[in-house]
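Regression test attached.
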Amino acid sequence: MTKILVIHGPNLDLLGKRQPEIYGSFTLDEINKRMKKIAQEEKIEIEFLQSNHEGEIVDAIGEAKNKFSVLLINPAAYTHTSVAIRDAISASGLPCVEVHLSNIYAREEFRHTSLIAPVARGQICGFGIDSYLLGLRAAINLAKARGA
Ligand code: DQA
């Protein structure tokens, strides 16, 4: 059965309270509920992890290899710094969709580089909660294309 792992990186647990002018007013729980609804309609399984710890995210990606069909990740600040998360995605061999709430290319220069993008199938950014919902659609289609 198609199973998608959604990973939310550091500080995304603060959504709703954190710079709503940049990240919107949805909480992480609301975003997850919206994705869960799509997953139910599409009859696929979905699991969520939020972590503020790089190693925990690396471990989760490593364990995902035999359990999930596709990864959907908002690596948050680790987007711009984490060779370890990038390597874990490569090592897993799983197709990966990268999403961001904000348009990282319209913000500070240090956010313009994603270390994750080259190992992702694609990136969606700048659409707030819709980045996740569009990303989930892409992840479902990737899973279907794999026959997983
Ligand atoms: C973010 C963008 C990152 O630059 C930032 O560090 C985040 C959130 C986004 O979803 O827009 O924490 O990934």
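Expected vs. actual: identical. The radius of gyration is 14 Å.
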